[in-house]
From TrEMBL:
Pfam families: DEAD (PF00270), Helicase_C_2 (PF13307). Its cofactor is [4Fe-4S] cluster. Belongs to the helicase family. DinG subfamily. This is ATP-dependent helicase DinG. It catalyses: ATP + H2O = ADP + phosphate + H(+). PANTHER family: DNA REPAIR DEAD HELICASE RAD3/XP-D SUBFAMILY MEMBER, REGULATOR OF TELOMERE ELONGATION HELICASE 1. Keywords: ATP-binding, Helicase, Hydrolase, Nucleotide-binding.
Amino acid sequence: MAVGVDVRELLEAAVSGINGQTRPGQVEMAEAVNTSMHEGSHLLVQAGTGTGKSLGYLVPALLHAIEDRRVVVSTATLALQSQLVDRDVPALLDATEKLLPRRPKYAIQKGRNNYACLHRIREGAPDDDGMLVDVPPPGQIGQQVLELRDWAEQQLLDGEAGDRDHAPSHQYQAWQQVAIAARECLGAQKCPYGEECFAEKAKEEARKADIVITNHALLSIDAFENRTVLPEHDVVIVDEAHELPARVTGAAGDELSPQMVERAAKRSRRFVDDDKADDLIDASDALRAALDGTREGRIEPSNGPVLEAAALVRDVARALYSDLNKKTDDKDDDPDGAKRQSKGAVKEIFDVSERVAALSDLDVVWMVDRERFGRELRIAPLTVAGLLRELVLKDRTAVLTSATLTLGGDFDAIARQVGLRPSDKLADDDEMPDVDDSSETGPLPWRGLDVGSPFEYEKQAILYVAKHLPPPHRDGLGQKQFTEIIDLVTAAGGRTLGLFSSRRAAEAATAAVREATDLKVLCQGDAQLGELAREFVADPETSLFGTLSLWQGLDVPGSTCNLVIIDRVPFPRPDEPLMAARQRAVDEAGGNGFMAVAATHAALLLAQGTGRLIRRSSDRGVVAILDPRIVTQRYGAFLRASLPPMWPTADREKVLGALKRLQST
C-alpha cells in the first residue's frame, strides 16, 4: 500500500499532536529505524532520557505496518507494555490519522498466565491431590479470589480483556487461583469455555493487528516455541533492549525442588495406580536428601548424589507421564480437565529433571537454599547469545533500543550479549550486503547509533566520587561511609535516592541517617515499592533507600531527587553461580572474563542507576559514588565511559556546597 508521507513528516505530525517539540535525536532515530526496516539490517540505537524514544520507533513502525507488514514491539515490563497500549500508540494514531490511508490496528499480547482462566474460575483450581476444588482458601486470599472471580465474569459481560493489570487489588497467591500456566491449559478446542477465553481472544486480536505490543518474556517463549505464540511478523522492535539477555535467560531457565516433584505426584494420584504416584514421591524424597547433603552453589559432575537423584526423578516422571497419557484422546476420560493439568505438571518435572541430569556444557545448574521454601535446583543457559541470534534475530529485522546500550563507549558488549558480532557491524556509509539467511554461521549485519540526549549533563549534573573513602569490603558499610551518607543527605535536605548493593546495606544506611538527623528516610521493605515511590515523590524532603529494583525504571523528576547515592560498584557476587560460570567460560576461551561479564554487568547497572537523577531539562543534582575503585582501578575508565557525561569531581566540600545551594532554590 503506497503511503504519501515520509517518516519526518509523520513524526512532526505526531509530536505536534501531543503538544510536544521535535528533537534532533528523535528525528535521527526515526530515520535510522525506517532505513533499518527497509534495508533489512539490524539496528542498535541508544536514545538518552528525554529523546522521545517511543515516538522515535513507533512512527517508522506505523509506516511499515501500513504497507501490510506487521511489526511486533517488545518491552521489558508489563507496565511499559500497558503504557504503550493505553497512552502512546492511541495518541500517535489520533495525531497521524489524516496523513495515512487507513488507521492501523494495534493489540496487546501477554502470556497466558496474565489472563483470567474461565475454566479455573468456574470449575475450580486443583489441590495437591489433583482434585478441582471450587471453594477458595479462607481468609484474605479467599476473599480476593471471590472478588477476582466476580471481576472476571463482569469483564466477560463488558467485552473487556480480563487481564491482570485491570484486576482488583490482590496478592500473587489469589491470582494463581484464577489463572493458569500455558502447559496446564486444556486448549481452546477441548475447553468448554474456549470460545469465551480471554487469552484466546487476545491472540485473535493480535492476528488482526498491524502492530502487536508484547514483552520480552513472551517474545522469548515465541522464539522457543518456533514462533507459534505471536503472529507472523518481519520486524521486531525491542525497547529497553539492555534487559533482553536477562529476560531471555529467565525464560530459558527452570527450577526443580522436592516440593514441586511431590506436588505433581499427588496431583496424579487420582488418575494412576497409587504405587506409581508413590514412586514419584519417593523420588522427591531422594532429591531432598541429596540436596540436604550438598553445599549451595554450582552443581558439577562431582556432585554425584544430586545428579543421580535428578536422573531418578526423570525416570519415574517419564513412566508416570506415559501412564497418564493413556486414553487421553477419549473425551470422556478427562471431563473436568484435571488430568490434563496433572499431565502438564508431571511433564514439566520430567523436562526439567532430564535437563538437570544431562548437565550439558551449555547449561549451568546450581542449588539455592530458600529461607521459607527450602532447597531447590536452578538451571539456566550459560549464554543466550546463540539463542537470540538463531531464534530472534535471524530471518527478520530487529531494532534494539534503550537509553543505555553503549558500555565502555561502544555497542560491542551489548551486541555480543544479544548475538550480534562486532565484526558484522556496518559503518555509517556501508551498503547492506547480500546475506544468505539460511547459513547458521553467516553474518547478521547491524549498525549502531547513539542519538545522544537533549540534556546538558555537564551543566545539570555532578559526578562525585568519594576518593578519600576506603574501598568497600564484604562486611558492608563502615562508619566512614555512614558519615559520608549522613553529610550528603543533610546537605541535600533529604531529596535523596540511595541505591545500595544489598538489603542489609540499605537498612543500615537508613538506620544511620534516621538516628543522626530528623530527615525522613523510607527504606525498601517498609511497604510495597509502589507505595514508597509515591510517598517519595509527594514529599521533596523525603529520601528513599533500596536495592536493585530502584536502580532502573523509577522516574522521579524535579526537586524530589537532587542526590543519588551509590554505595559501591555493583559487580555480581563472586559466588553467584551463573555469572561466575559465564566469566570462567570467557577466560577459558582466551578472553577477559572479568571485563566481559562482571565489569559489563556493573557498567550497565551504574548507567541505569545514575540515570535516575536527570529526568527533565530543568533537573539539577549530584550522583555520589562512595566506591573509589571507579577512579583508582584500571577498569574504572570502562565504567566511567558508560555513564552520562556529568561534570566529575572528588572535592567533597564543593559537592556539599552545591547540594546546599540546590536545597535553597
